Amino acid sequence: MLSPFHRLNLTPSQKTANATIFTQTFKLPDQHGIFNFYVNYRRPFVTSVEEKRTVTVRHFAHDEWPRSYVISGAWPWISGIWVTVVGWLVFVGLWLYSKPAQPKQDLKAAKSMSAATRTIESIAAPSRPVLHLTAKRPKDSRLLLLPTELLTQIFEYVFEGSETGPVTHMPNGIAVLNASYTASSKLWPMLACRQFYYDYQYLALAYTSFSITSPFANIDARLLSLAPNLQSAIRSLTFVADDRHFRKLIAWGNCPFDMPNLNLDTLTIVLLSSSRWHFLFDHTKDLIQLLRRLHNLKRLVFVRNNASVKGSFKTWCNRLIGLILKIDHEQRYLVDPPCLEQVWWSWEYDAKAQTFTLEAGEARELVGEDEYMREVLGLMETLRVSVESEEWNPDPRTTLLLSLRRLVWDKTAWKGP
User: Fold this and answer.
1) 231, 223 Cβ separation under 8 angstroms
2) Of 102, 199, 211, 398, which sits most exposed with the smallest number of CB within 10 A?
3) What whole-number distance in Å separates Cα of residue 367 and Cα of residue 307?
4) Integer angstrom CA distances of residue 18 from 11, 14, 44
């Protein structure tokens, strides 16, 4: 860039008795640097005047600007600093001198304990004194003198009384993980006395839904820490899963977590809600092979939990069911000898809650291919309707991919190579 250059004429501005003062006023160029003020005056028969003065054009130094409180544009920022300081001091004062609230678990335990006490009082004779759980010796407690059947019903009522679970529903009906739920909130009656613990620990485990919310927890190690008889008492388990958990899941043998003692009624898999995508389609085929041999599980539930699923969650559910039917047909009629599934799964997709449920049933018998096609015709029609109502995917490439998959499906479904 060329340096600015101005050629200006001097004009007389002041006269003295023996001299005339010439001046010129101009605006400095908008460029920092070193400039010369150069005067070159040459006239015939007059003495020449040549003067050069070097000056520096720079921005203001930090100590040459006015103070910040003088600049009106800085007032909001200064006010924000002081508001933050005062707010922090107020918060620290309130936190130091405020009493912590009583935990909700203790409140629920106190309410349930009072309800159990009122039940005992109503059963006991009015004329006889009632000794509660605070008795010094177990034989002094009127509760332990009740018949075993009645006492068992009381504990079943206590364990079933909680309406909260590992999965809750938002106001719009979508199922999400209940981060505030803890299984210990339902096991507090076991802490009343040792006799309750030893007599009803299996009942407590059977009625309690266990939840593992940390994706980094070692689920296998936690289950192995329990005795085999306690493992067999667990009926409901929920855990948060990402890609690592699905890789471990498809490596199971014939039972959940490769533990033959574990006999679950419900296994809930909640997708990890984060900024990362879930690529469930990568595990579809291996997951089907697991489902064909999986025992000791009655109900498998997948919860989207507002997670980002590549290709949409409903699309994955439909592809999983379609591939189950296709592989089942191939293993029955295109393989010699036929390889039948050990478990047949029925499915249900809840569009409002965004959950996908698989119910285990008895394996189907080997019948003729025509009869088999008639049996699964209703399932195929249900699947077709579900595919047509799949979620809209903003990726335009998925529309072309879906069309190609349907074309390949129409040509290869129920046909051999």
Assistant:
1) yes
2) 102
3) 41
4) 17, 11, 21
Q: Which two tokens stand for residue 116?
A: 């159990």
Paired sense of beta strands 264-271 and 236-241, if any = parallel
Question: Alpha-carbon distance 388 to 393, whole Å?
Answer: 13
Decide if 132 contacts 143 (C-beta within 8 A). yes
Q: Residue 117 is inside which H or E element, if any?
A: helix 104-123
The alpha carbon of residue 16 and the mean position of all alpha carbons in its chain are separated, in whole angstroms, by 88
Please state, in angstroms and rounded to a whole number, the distance separating the CA atoms of residues 256 and 262.
7
51-82 residue pLDDT tens: 999 988 888 888 888 888 888 888 999 999 99
pTM equals 0.59
Chain mean position to CA 294: 27
Q: What are the backbone angles phi and psi of residue 303, rounded to the nearest 5°?
A: -115, 125
Structure tokens at 328: 């089942």
What burial class does residue 162 get, using C-beta atoms within 10 Å of its C-beta: 0-12 exposed, 13-18 middle, 19+ buried?
A: middle
Q: What pLDDT is stored for residue 387 in this prediction?
A: 85
Q: Kindly give the residue spans of alpha helices, DSSP state H, lying in 161-301.
A: 194-207, 219-224, 228-231, 243-249, 284-291
CB 263 within 8 A of CB 232: yes
pLDDT at 130: 39
User: Would strands 209-212 and 236-241 be described as parallel, antiparallel, or unpaired?
Assistant: parallel
How far apart (Å, rounded) are the C-alpha atoms in residues 112 and 118?
Answer: 10
Work out the number of other CB atoms within 10 angstroms of the CB of residue 54.
9
Q: What is the mean pLDDT of each run of 10 residues along the chain (417 residues)?
A: 74 90 85 86 89 88 83 91 96 86 59 51 42 48 79 82 80 89 81 82 87 88 87 90 88 88 92 88 89 91 91 89 90 87 90 92 87 87 83 52 54 47
Give me the count of residues in the chain. 417
Closest CA to 165 of 364, 40, 301, 60: 301
